[in-house]
Specification:
The chain is of the alpha/beta class and about 400 residues long. It has 15 helices and 15 strands.
């Protein structure tokens, strides 16, 4: 028995039962090869690829035409040529963030895809607040080429654009390692301690020399900590109370924890200050520097190995090994030169409101002020976040009307 393959597309106002009515009307001599259904703002698009016995083609056309007329839907019927299965094409996810999201950003993304042979298989919104986030499911393009092209588009439009492979590594447990100062928190801990000690200006001068390349991180850290000698440990408690979380940091950690991710903090700051914060955020591990304390006062020295640029990368690698997570399923988030090696080593390096050197080392940059926007780069939707909040017993505020 010969068959003909045809694509039937129904579109129009959605209502319950449309899909059931279509398939209930089809004869048993019809085979379903593929189906896709999408509803946008109560507008339905239902596409069905059918293998129809040749003798039944006119009957199927008649039945479907009558059904479309009854339901007030638009109908398209197109014959399809089905040959050998197409060659496997690389699947890519392109995530676009904006607050607000401008048309030119979407135009840049779609132009870059078209110029590099990328086909957009699907576009869906994964968040509407506090940023608008769109996920483009793409096939047929190169991840590395798209990253380079869309990095330019991000600079030109001010939008944040991430490009990632969409294979099995999107599933399974992941490790997220975050810098602390100016990433998880809005402060620089050394500056807060310097204010307590009355040496903020001197510490700032050393920091400036380090940024100018006159000192490496370890040297600058030792010089700055030396200025804190004699500071009572009560000052650490005061600094802990002054720390300000970055907007979205708590949501980010809570959601990742609920979804089973491993979350760790690495910092060029100090364990004594950030340990209570890490406990509050329920992260799995913390790696930071330690202040030497004697007789209730800071000695002005650092005890143990210094967590510098290389130390942060080693922490990422060691956490991954400890939890049995391959490096390709690690995410690093940071903002400064001290984070460069970590960002470069991770499966996905995210520069968060970062300096130019960190942005250059990262796979993508997030420039909106909400740390939980990183969740969208991982394919986690606003609905997932709200469901995680519900599981945690938290009430989620109603979203603004789009």
């Amino acid at each position: 028995m010969t068959t003909q393959t045809m694509l039937i597309t129904l579109s129009g106002r959605d209502r319950p039962g449309v899909t059931n009515r279509l398939f209930s009307s089809l004869d048993s001599g019809v085979g379903v090869r593929d189906i896709e259904q999408l509803v946008v703002r109560d507008r339905l698009v239902l596409a069905v690829l059918l293998d129809v016995e040749t003798l039944l083609v006119s009957k199927v056309v008649h039945v479907v035409t009558a059904l479309a007329k009854e339901l007030g839907l638009e109908l398209a019927i197109e014959p399809q040529m089905i040959d050998v299965p197409p060659a496997k094409r690389q699947r890519i996810h392109v995530t676009l963030l904006g607050a607000p999201l401008r048309p030119e950003a979407i135009a840049h993304v779609t132009q870059a895809l078209a110029e590099r042979g990328g086909n957009i298989d699907r576009i869906r919104r994964i968040a509407s607040y506090p940023v608008t986030a769109l996920l483009f499911e793409v096939s047929g393009a190169s991840t590395s080429q798209l990253r380079r092209a869309l990095a330019v588009a991000a600079n030109e439009t001010g939008a944040d654009i991430a490009v990632q492979d969409a294979g099995l590594d999107r599933r399974g447990q992941h490790l997220v390692v975050m810098d602390v100062d100016s990433t998880v928190i809005q402060d620089e801990v050394i500056d807060l301690l310097a204010q307590e000690a009355g040496v903020l200006e001197q510490v700032a001068q050393i920091t400036e020399r380090a940024m100018a390349g006159e000192l490496d991180f370890a040297e600058s850290l030792r010089e700055r900590v030396a200025l804190l000698a004699g500071l009572p440990i009560e000052a650490i408690t005061r600094v802990q109370q002054r720390i300000t979380l970055t907007p979205g940091a708590r949501t980010l950690c809570r959601t990742l924890n609920t979804l089973g991710y491993r979350v760790c903090l690495v910092s060029g700051g100090f364990t004594e200050v950030i340990a209570p914060l890490a406990n509050d955020l329920a992260v799995d591990r913390v790696r930071a520097n330690s202040l030497e304390i004697r007789d209730g006062r800071l000695t002005g020295a650092v005890s143990g190995p210094i967590v510098d640029r290389l130390g942060k990368r080693r922490a990422l690698e060691e956490f991954a090994e400890e939890f049995g997570i391959p490096m390709r399923r690690t995410i690093a988030i940071g903002d400064g030169a001290n984070d460069i090696d970590m960002l470069a080593a991770a499966g996905l390096g995210v520069a968060f409101n970062a300096k130019a050197a960190a942005r250059d080392a990262a796979d993508t940059a997030v420039n909106v002020p909400y740390l939980d926007s990183v969740l969208y780069l991982l394919g986690i939707t606003r609905e997932d976040i709200e469901e995680a909040d519900e599981q945690a017993g938290l009430r989620t505020p109603a979203p603004p009307v789009p």
